[in-house]
Amino acid sequence: MSDEVVTPLSHEECWQMLREEEFGRLAFRLVDEVHITPVNYAVDHDTLLFRTAAGNKLLSVAMGAEVAFEIDRYDDHHARSVVVRGGARILHEDEEHRADNVPLRPWVGTPKYNVVEITPRVVTGRAFRLTRPWLHLTLDGLGQE
């Protein structure tokens, strides 16, 4: 990582991070509301797959809404974030087997029979060197004694 506080991640670095993680946040529009929800996912070649039950996510995908998907990783000194924007579709029965060929592991045992594929149009990422300026503040600097 360079001396810059914020640096862009390359396309390859973004996809490497997407392959290494399994949990992210899906943002979607349903009529006039924007929703965001956590999902477990897996990379299948150049797409993302996740399973879902009937509900808002599935309805939004069925209605053809565009989605955004975000993952992040951080420690005390560095953070990384990748954002995917694109279309989503419900896989047909003859394609659902793709979810069995990737490490798609749900965290809860609720039934999720529908497999959704996100096809990215845009994949971007950034790396941050965390300076955590609040650690350097004193009570005097906050106007307190």
Please, could you describe this protein's structure?
This protein is mostly beta strands and 145 residues long. The protein is built from two helices and eight strands; from the N terminus they run βαββββαβββ. It has helices spanning 11-20, 56-62, and strands at residues 6-8, 23-30, 33-40, 42-44, 47-52, 67-74, 78-90, 114-129. Strands 1, 2, 3, 4, 5, 6, 7 and 8 form an eight-stranded antiparallel β-sheet that branches. Strand 6 (67-74) and strand 7 (78-90) form a beta hairpin. The model has no long low-confidence stretch (mean pLDDT 90).
Question: What would a concise description of this structure say?
Answer:
The protein is mostly beta strands. The termini are far apart.
- Could you say which overall geometry the principal axes of the C-alpha atoms support? elongated
User: What is the overall pLDDT average?
Assistant: 90
Sheet of most strands: 8 strands, antiparallel
Sequence of secondary-structure elements: EHEEEEHEEE
Structural class: mainly beta
Helix content: 10-25%
Radius of gyration: 18 Å
The low-confidence runs, each spanning 5 or more residues with pLDDT under 50, are none
Number of strands: 8
Organism: Nocardioides alpinus
Protein name: Pyridoxamine 5'-phosphate oxidase
Pfam families: Pyridox_ox_2 (PF12900)
